[in-house]
Amino acid sequence: MAALVKYYSYTFTNPQKCQVVGVVATDASDAWLQLGVKLGSPMYKQGFALSGAPLFLGEYPPGSIPTPRDQQIGQQ
Predict the structure, then answer these.
(1) pTM exceeds 0.90
(2) Helix, strand, coil share of the chain (percent; to 5)
C-alpha cells in the first residue's frame, strides 16, 4: 500500500479584484500551480497573495483530489 499524502487547503486573495480563491495542494509551490489551473491561466495569478496558514485537510492516497472545506473569510 502506498504511503498517504498530506493535503492542505490554501487560500489566495486579490484585494484589487475582491477575489478569494481556495485550492487544494500538497505544498505551497503546487498551490500556486493549482491557482493558475483554477483561474484558467498562469497569467491570472498576478495580484494574488497567499493569505493565512494552510488548512490541513487530512491524509489521502496519492492522486486523490480532496475538495477544500468551506472557509469563513472575514472582511478586514
Answers:
(1) no
(2) 20, 35, 45
